[in-house]
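To: structure desk
From: M.T.
Subject: fold request, one chain
Message: Could you run this one when you get a chance? Sequence is below, nothing fancy, just the single chain.
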Amino acid sequence: MIRKLLIPLLSLTVTLGGVFYSTPTVKASDNPEVAAKLVVQKFFDTMSEGNFAEATELVVDLRYPSKEKQIAKYEHYNSVSDFESMKIIDAHTENESTVVVTFQGNVSGVESKNELYVKESEDEWKLILGDDDPATVAALNVPEFSTHAMVDYYSFTGFNYGRAHYTINSFSTQGNAVSLIGWQYASSDYHADVSYQVAQDSFIGWKTFGNASSVYGNYTSAAGDRFTISLTGVPKGNDYHIRIVNWAPVSVDGAGNVYTN
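Reply: Done. Structure tokens follow.
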């Protein structure tokens, strides 16, 4: 059972975005932005301290149906992100039950500004992380996850129109272009039309980098008939995957290799 973060909170002082907030006892409904900042800061603190089981109690993470897998991934996220560097810089109320908290910090090796959604339900504030798209769940819940700095392989069968899919294995890059050599095939009556883009699995959820590269036409696995594309705008970092979307009106099959420098 998920333990509730009880509101009202005991009086305490925390540093939020470089400003000291001295918070008296407060109900979530009285000051939602302060309450949301407190739970986000608590999450950052528990992650940086290595209290991953406690960190999972502060969130609703739609990616991991298994608590054991969630804790293991949080331990990994902690190894590639600097939670001590994360500073809350803003919060604004989106609606009566949702606050958007903006923070700056090193997320998966990339210094960036990001937003977290914090929701209130029955006086309980939780960070909402990731999504429950079946493609996300399938990509992130394999028995083991691995990184490949030099090359990765992917294949797909029966991808339908408009749905995003993600390669299962992750890879890292030193900030150079990511290259794909592969094939794709729709049918004898239709051309394949597939876009490829680099996406990063961060503790927040998927983050895409650079522009999606579209490949139009049928290609086979024959050595002289495969396509080659270069995906740029990807900073040095870890936990990258390839985001694949089929735009053809029929299902598409394909496979390929991913190369990084």
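Reply (cont.): The chain is about 15% helix and 45% strand. Let me know if you need anything else for the meeting.
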